[in-house]
User: Fold these one by one.
Assistant:
Number 1:
Amino acid sequence: MNKAPAHPPRLIAVLPTRVRRNYRGGRELDRLAGHPAPKDSDQPENWLASTLTATNPDLPPVANEGLTLVRSGDKVTTLRELLALAPEFYLGAQHLDQLGQQLGFLAKLLDSSMRLHVQVHPTSQFAREHMNAPYGKLEVYYVLGVREGCEGYIRMGFQRSPGRERWRAIVEHQDISAMDACFDKIPVKKGDVWRVPGGLPHAIGEGVLMIEIMEPSDLVVRCEFEREGVVLPPNSRYMGRDLDFCLNVFDYQSYPSDEVIKQHRIEPKPLIAAPGWSYDQLISPQDTSCFEVFRLRASTSGALAADNRCSLYIQVEGTGNLCAGEETILLTPGSACFVAANTQLTYQPANAASELLCCKPILTQQPGEQAHE
């Protein structure tokens, strides 16, 4: 039986954890990882902070698929196994009391070469009341870029709702032209922050590279069964239920595109603005009860105050060292570091323009704001 080390490291290097999905992409993830021949495949996602296995019915089983791989010292293990060795050290007592050993979020890199199938996720309330599940799947997108030659868009919500019974017929008969007529293309660009609540049908457009942070769940209803030759097997469509059940997940209200942009494209809230150092809140407790997301832009070194929550740092642009005492991890674009609770950090950018995202679970009593020294 594995035992916790006497002095566990506070900084944990996250390793690439590619996951199969029912769409193609991943070329840009290969580029970020330094592969000599990047290409698209059926592994378009890299799960950066997951203590959940992926749901891939009808595909050959892969042991522990979706569990984030990490390096601790000279050992490679899963994040879930690492947390189980020293749960209070890594997560903090309050996290264990409120959330157990499961993280309050799941974070991934996503790179689509095709438009995803139209889909929807349940709200947390629906998941609790009707599926005996603790979480639905609210999602947050942080757009990293759009492939050259691609338009850069998402579908979100019905712009022209067909209503429940008409939508049932559209899905049953796979009337794709009628399905397409329900949606507009909503443009996205690098740096955008989007909040996609449960209940809103949506689809990420082709060529979009993003960081996706979500409630820790893999629950999805897919209502478009074929895209560009990728056919969804029946067990991948309705969460193991039937269409009647899944029709209850949808928000059937019509939302004009400008209203979607106004409600769901999030404007960052500045928290700290100092020479060479800015710290913004992207997602707050007003946006979701599960997690917060912050953005650090730095050209000078600075300190990030310890609090009682674990965190995930993802390098977006530039390079830099994340330090905790004698521990240091070099972060490059697309790489990530899991940080134990109650850790005082220093970030040392190596570039004039360095950018990171920080994800933290929400606990009922929050510490003060991050400091810069």
Note: Confidence is low (pLDDT under 50) at residues 366-373.
Number 2:
Amino acid sequence: MIALDTPPDPIDVTDITFATDNRLAGNLIGQWAAAQLDGERAVIALLDVFDDRIVSVDYQRNNGFLEGMGIDVADPNRTGDEAPTGQYSGGEYEIVGNEATGGAEDGGRTAMENLLSRNGDINVVYTINEPAAFGAYQALQAAGREDDVLIVSVDGGCAGVGYVADGVIDATAQQYPAQMAQLGIEALVNFAQTGETPEVTDGLDFFNTGVALVTDVPVDGVESIDTAEANELCWG
């Protein structure tokens, strides 16, 4: 038995899971954002999927982003319990809040409006996915802030890569769902022929199908691909 996209809990209910390392995806955009700030105070908005339940994609991407920024998280398997102020890898930070978006454009817009009403100095916006990022951009645009806020996200679908190329999103972490499906089918065929099951990726309890930081503004020390290359690899 195999699973695709999201490792189950407990992990051993399947023989193998083909999925993206969501924490690494968040970590990459966090490192990039910290480098872009270059020591400037980070005033951070966190746009998640939910605020009334705990799901792995939420805490893995969100906390991966914070860890990439150099911010300690209290519980790696929860969101919203890190210190609201402190030091990131480049200087001081303040987290304005976590807001639910449902992973949707309208949710991203409303969440961003809510956070801007609390603090108009937000200069870094993490979003769970690219539809939420586009909604956040619309709210920032309406407030006249779209040009002085970094927006980072996760997924790397073709629409999202287009948002990066157009300057709506500054960086995203691209994932490869087609690779998950392909490897899953190959694993089934190989098991039928040989009885062998694939091995998990070192250090993980699933097979990581890959992630790449996508931006047209690369920074030293954080490997990335540009939107031209990402457009050849995108999905959707």
Note: DSSP finds seven helices and ten strands in the chain.
Number 3:
Amino acid sequence: MEGLVSGFGYAGSQSDNNYDVIIIGGGPAGASAAIYTARADLRTLVIDKGLTAGALGLTAKISNYPGVPGPINGAELIETMRAQAESFGATFITDKVVGVDLTSEPKMVMAGTNSYTAQAVILATGSMGRTGAIPGEVEFLGRGVSYCATCDGAFFRQQDVAVVGNNDEALEEALFLTKFAGKIHLISPTPELKARDHLVAEVAEHPKIELRLGTRLKQICGNGAVDSVRVQPRRGEEETLPVRGAFVYLQGGLPITDYLMGQVETAREGCLVVDREMQTRIPGVFAVGDLLCDHIKQAVIAAADGVVAAIAADKYINQRQSLRTDWK
């Protein structure tokens, strides 16, 4: 596995992959932004890791979202927002952004399966980034440790791998790996999977996937490359699983900005710095929702941020002097 990294050299039709606006993240901020950019006749692409990859998607009960009588779970609310955005022409894809070039013209966004360009980019990736790494995770990054099955799955043909996580993203990546891997150990830190029912059912029924619920990943081991992982079930003895790859999809509470590769200014807390129109220091690049320092973590506020950024993106693309409000 020496040199296992995700590359940025993707093929594809420039016209097919060129958009007016790319939104990274499909939670309440990203989906609301997509409603407004699509209604403004801007060709809009939303790249998202999965319905339950964000904080709202994991929320079991919501009763205080204006105009939506509750209770409703977060995934259902996001699906409603996305359907509304799609009705206006926005495109949603499930993928992971692995890098960006925000200073180029047009701006470029590199995902696991393709690259895309746009005049404006709205960052809406939330704040579920991890605070610390698993022992061995950094040491074997690129040598068996990966965060993107669609990028690196083909390196593991007929080999056993571990997928660590419990949400839509982790389950979708595990199912993708069944195309290549011999056996997949799906290690969930919680006793129940926090993913959509159809994904849970697919994972439970797939002969290549062995589900390990309520199990903690303690260490990723190897000698030059990954050769095993140490896991600890909640009720049971520690085990060592022989694997050649470890795909990690755990969550935390930090703003998710690693894919920006230091191109956007951050505050000391790791959140992004924006002006009153949600624009960063890079013209045409906007940030919303839980990526911001002063953001109150409520879905309705994230949605409002997305609307402000969308209207500002329309202003930027069309070189207007002032924001144009959509009252239609």
Note: Residues 1-14 have pLDDT under 50 and may be disordered.
